[in-house]
Structures are given as structure tokens and as C-alpha cells.
């Protein structure tokens, strides 16, 4: 195995070779833990990335490449960017928010916004927005702040409030989850208070040309005005120099800080859970954004989740939304030879035509988180393991009903029925996500060994109310030699019926590191019998949980 | 390669150093990568696709808002492969298009159109145009429902038409328009070397207008109601059109007539939005003024990929034509759909005497995006002309 890995790395450069050495060190004699473990902040902003160049993906190529199974070799090893306690450190990709600390409802609703309201007296259009996305729009600045540019987008008349509402909700929720997102504001634009910059340009199939008032009027023509003559739009701020998109596999070859293959980043793998919850079927590489951030001389690439205008099933024409990939040849043949009369269960429910036009193709009755699919596959989603999904489901479980109701209210739907439907649907889909993914692995969390030798832990599935407690927990204790990465000495087994136990004094006495494996006996989820491995380190302040592996046998 | 191997081996001891920190380890990996950066690269195929998407190459090639572009013509079925230059200049007010094309079978056409484009919420549309065309090998099998394949002849048709139209959209789903045209029409011998020319088989009695060169004025009215869910590939709703034309022979000749067309289309979803039952009924007729006739080439025709698919194009022709089509369409994925169809139709000299209905059925596959058919391949069976394989751009109805 080592020689194969080494050959692969030799062909790909020194940084991969370095990664190899780390991987082999983990498997070899140790040490397993370093003094700064668990790492909660990955300083992936330290090497200057000023030389990184804009790189935008071809959407068609991305779809083709990812739709070919052979281009997506299965490689579901453990996520490579998790810390030793199986969590995702803060980085240029992700910042722990709701996952690690309580957030008030106001904080969740505010999201990335720099101000509660974008107060613009006069918009100055600086250019067209090109073809990106389905929503018509343009680029503009606040006449008083010409240095800050926004992209403004309207809803199509036949689906008023649909995409703009989705954008607002998706931005707030993805921010609370922990992703970097662009701040987007809901604005009512008065056409009488819009002027065109003299140098504004647009680009069409015949090249660049001046942006005119007619172009602006054309955008308005496609939208539905508010009763007062203004137009509801989203205004997304340009947050820096765009470097294009990031892919869901490999790394950026021009970013020195980007060392973990994207298909092995937990936050990208587990985005499948968040995307399922919100029916973000358009969650794909072209809807990502890399931005050059930082100060002169020490630039780094910050990675954004981008463009939530099509979440919540906001592309009603996509009848397969969330239920099937665009291309599934076996399903295609079945549909062909059954003359289309093979009605799948999800085709019987959630017909959006029965709902107000501001509601997209999203429901809860036929929602199965485990079988949810984006428009087309990607390697990060393919590699998602139960421990990745568990991590995401815990974050989802922390969104309260109140918070979800408040986030939906931020979208300011004019029809109360829309707000009610979306709130109820998000709550029901949240519960489905939690029911599916929390009990799917041994859900032991938050182990802590007190100075008096009492070990306490929680069962996330039981705490969330989606599973009953196990008959008993089996704890297997031993000392751990960190330098050798090996358990040493005799093992001591305990059985307890509650998530609390007293560590054997024979194991603790004089030990620097202690290992305990916790399995649960439960009738229904057999995965609970697979032990979670926990490593505890003695410090001057007591015992510190330094390691947690939820799927230790699946490394 | 040896360099990278050496680098990996050099890094190895550092990685297993017990005094190392996790942060330092990651930093070491980043330092190694920083020494070997290179820009992202696209493959040639990806670059090509990227340019099509982001530099609008396809639209620039086929339908740009301004400038020169190639045009494949707008010829009737069977004209062969056609190509020619076109020029367009359009803005938010007007669209000027100049086009010309010629085909491998000797067809050619040129036209110039100046059209109003949508401006804000204006609910009017209109255009003026001039075109000249010559079709050299059009097929004619005789009039009536009993025409036979063996009577195939060919004829040429040339016409110069100057005209315009004006319409309003009173509501979002309705439109009303009027047209006026002046045409100089000439019919002559066919140039298909493989079939006889029309005058060798038919006479002015069996093919009215044979050899005539009328100047015709057409005044038309058209009204439509569209309640479908989308302009292309609808899943539900109806699309109903009624049109009436008054055609006057400018000379004191014998070619004045009325023409009417009733086209009713209904789309019904079947168990959701991926299966559609599409129905169409069309009735077209011409009625000559007393003592006048309707040139055979202006009489309604059936047959071909857009009407009776089991018949050769233009196989049936007479003063009246009736067509009933039913299609069961189902989506296979975002870009592929399947269809089963049944259709029946006939022609006749009088509306009350329509008989001898021809029928066919078949199925096929359709390529497009979200039911918007770009290309279709179909097999039609059961018609009098045997099994027919059809490949065609665009939908049937």
C-alpha cells in the first residue's frame, strides 16, 4: 500500500508526498496526538496566495465530468481535515458557529449581513450581470458608497418572491451552519431612483456594449412590481476579487494553503446533508466562489458557498429536484420501457402547482434524506460517510423552530401561507434529517473525564429524541502510549446503563493517556454496537478529551 | 521525479517527530505545496465548453443580436442542405434582419425584416418584410384523399412578397394580429430529375393554377389564446388559434379565395408533471370566390413530419384538410423524452365530404431541455406509405 501511495505522490508533487508522510505516520508508530491537538483553528491563511488566478468552471463540463461514474472513484476514507476529536476546525472554508456555540435567533437571522437593512437612496447601475444564473439582474452601487458593488436580481413574474426568498433563507442558514457566504439583502428598488453610470457596460453574444435604460427596463419587464411601484430584489455584495469556483475534488494548484483534497473535506462531504435538508439540488462546484482575501503581501483564498436562489426547490421545472440525478441510465431505461407509467412514490406528492407560486418544489411527505440527490453527483458528496453525516445532522438539530420561523420571516413573503408552509416544511425536513443521520452511527458525544475519575458522555440521538436509550453501554478501558500509537497494559471492561461511569483506578493511575471504547447495546441501530474510540490526556488542569473516532474500523 | 521522492523522504522524519505540533505539520505541507504552485488548467474540451457558455459562442453563431452570422434557411421539408449569410442589428426597439440562403437542391431565398421588439411593457408587435424565394423541386401527388405515390410529380414555385403585420396583446394570454401582403407568384416546371414535371401528368383542371402567375393580395386576421404553462413543451393548458385570410387576385383573373384555419391544442398532465397527453385538432380550408379557383400550391396539405407522419410530405392536398393528433409524452430525464402518437387526417373538396381518413401511429425519442424539443427521431407505422423514420428539429405541436 505504501509503495502504491508513494508512486502516486511522486507523480503529483512534494506537497502530496508530505501528506503521504503524515498518513503513514498515523498508521505507524506514532505519535497519534500532538501537543496542540485537538486543533480548533487551521491557519490556512499563512501562505501568500496572491498569485492565484481566476478560474471559472464550465458548467456543462462539470456536469458531464461528474455524471460519469468512472470519473468519481469511490474513496470514502475518513475526512482528512477533521481534528482529532472528529470536528472541523475553523478555516478559510468553514467557521464553527451553531455547531459549537449557541446562537441567538437574532444572530442566526442576521447571518453575514453587515447591517440590519441596506438603506440605499439611489442605485447607480454599473453594468449587466451577464448570463450567470436564471434570475435577471444587473450590477449597481449605492450612489453614496460607489466603492461597494452589489449584484441585484429580481424574481421572474410567474414566480414572484420565489428565488429572492430562497436566497435570503439559504444565506442565513448556511451562514449559521458555518460556511462563508456573501451578505445578501432584500431591497425594494424604486425605478425612479435608479440611474445608469455613463460607463456602464453589458455583454451579449455580439460583444460588449453600453448598458442602457432599456436594459434596465427589460429586467423590470420580467418581474412583478410591488403595489407601490417598487421592485423586490436581492442585493448581494461583492466581497473581494473573485477567483472563480472551487471543485468538489482535488485542490487548487495555485493556492498553497489548499492541501486537503476537496472530496475529503468534511464540510464539503457533509454539505450533502445540509443540501438535502434545504433541497439545494443546485449545490455544485459552479455555485461556489473563491475570493482573494487578506492584506497585501499575505493574501489567502476564502471559499464561499454561493447562489442560494435555487434552493428550496426554486426551479419548479426540475421535476426530479432532489429525488434523482439528471442522468440515471437505469432509471431512464425503466421509464422508457414502462412507458413512463412507473410512478415513483415521490412523484405522487408535493406537486408545486397546488402551492402558491412563491413556493418551489419542496415538501416533507416524500422527503428521504438518505436518498436525496443533487442535480448531478460530485465526489465530495459521494464520499460522505455516516460520521460526516452525523456531524452535519448535529448542526441541523440545533436549529430551533423559532429560529427557522424567524429566518423564513426574513424573506418577507407577502402571502402568510407561504411563510407557514416553508416554516413547517423546514421543521419537518430538519426532523427527518436528524432521525436519519443521528442514529445511523454510534452517537456518543461530548465525553469528559472529571478529575475524580468520573466519565460522562451523551447520546446525541437520545438527547435529540430520535432514539430510545440503549440497554447498556460497554466501556473498554486501557492505557494508551501516544508515542507508539498503541494501547498498552491490561484492558478493563465495564457495563453501565446510563452515560456515566467511573474509570478504573488501575488504568488512570500514572497514565498520561487513557483510551476508552464505548459501544451501546440497542435493538434497532446495529451500528451502535460499533465502539466509539475516545482518547483522554492528562493535563495540569485535569483530563482533556484529545481524540474521538466514530468509525475507527473504517479508516 | 527523483526530486519529489527525495523531498518526501526528507519530510518523513519530521512528520513522525514526537515534538512536532499539528499546526507545524500542516504548515510544512503547505510550504511544500507553495514551492510547486501552478495555475489551474482546463482541458481542450472544457475550454471549448467554457467559451460556448461564457462567451456565448452558440448564440453568436446561430442568433446574435448584432452582426453577421450563418443561416441555414427556412425552406420546406425536402429542400436539402441549405446555408447562407445573415446580418442582424437589434436593440430594445427594432430588429433588422437580412438573410439569404441556398440549398443543395437548388432552392434559394432572401428576405429582409424590420420588426418591433418588446419594449418595456408595451403590448404591441409588428413587422414589415420583403422576401423573394424559389423552390425548385416541390412535390405534388394530385388533389384529394385518394392520390397515389405513383403520381408523384415536381414543380417549381417562385414568389416575391412584400408585407407587414401588426398585433396587440390585450391580456397576457391572448393576442390579436392583422397582416397584409402583396405577392408576385410564379409556378413552373419542376426540376427534380427523378420524377416527371407536374405538367407531364396533371392539367389545369386536375391541378388548378398550373402555370399561372398571379399577383395576390392577402389580408389576414389571427387571434390566439394560450393558457399553457410554458411556451415550449407545455404540460398543461390549451393553445387555441383561429385565423382567416382573404386572398384577392390583383389581376381580373380567377384566383380570389378565403382561407381559414382552426388549430386547437390541449395539454393534459398525466399523474404529475412528467407525463403529458397532448391533443391537437386542426381544420384548414379554402373557399374560392364564385367562378374562381384556388391554386393547388395554396391548398392545404397533409403528410410529413409535422402532420401525418406515416405519409410522405405533401402527400395529401385539397381544399379542406382535417387533422387529429394525440401524443403521449413522458420525460426520461432533463434532456430526453419519449413519445407515442396516433394521428389521423384527410383532405377533401368540401368540408362536409371529408372521408377516407388516413391514420398512423408510432413512437420516438426527443432531445431538448425540460421538454423543449430540439431534435426528435420517430418511427411512424400504419400509414399508406409504409414505415417511415423521421428525424427533425423542433416539436410537432
How would you describe this protein?
The complex is a heterodimer of chains A (555) and B (397). With 555 residues, chain A is of the alpha+beta class. Chain A folds into three domains: 1-30, no CATH class; 38-437, no CATH class; 444-554, Immunoglobulin-like. Chain A has 15 helices and 19 strands. Chain A has helices spanning 2-10, 14-27, 59-67, 105-110, 162-177, 213-221, 266-269, 271-278, 329-337, 379-382, 386-397, 401-410, 416-437, 460-463, 505-508; strands at 123-128, 137-142, 145-154, 180-181, 184-189, 194-204, 207-210, 231-237, 241-242, 288-295, 298-305, 444-449, 454-459, 472-481, 486-496, 500-502, 513-521, 532-539, 542-549. Chain A starts with a helix and ends in a 6-residue tail after the last strand. In chain B, 11% of the residues lie in helices and 48% in strands. Chain B has helices at 2-15, 22-34, 44-54, 57-62; strands at 66-71, 82-90, 94-103, 108-116, 124-140, 153-168, 174-189, 215-226, 237-249, 257-269, 275-288, 301-302, 316-317, 320-331, 336-348, 358-369, 372-381, 388-393. The longest helix of chain B has 14 residues, at 2-15. The N and C termini of chain B lie far apart (62 Å). The interface between A and B is large, with 83 and 75 residues.
